[in-house]
Amino acid sequence: MPVPRRSAVAVRHVAFEDLGLLSPILDAAGWDVSYCDAPTDDLTAPAVTKADLLVVLGGPIGVYDQDDFPFLGREIELLGRRLAEDLPTLGICLGAQLMACALGQAVYPCFEKEIGWGPVTLTEAGKASCLGALPRGGHVLHWHGDTFDLPPGASLLASTKACTNQAFVYRKRGLGLQFHLEADPARLEHWYVGHAVELEAVGIFPRDLRAASAKAAKRARAVAEAVFGRWLAEIG
Question: Can you tell me the distance from the alpha carbon of 54 to that of 91, in angstroms, rounded to the nearest whole number?
Answer without folding.
Answer: 8
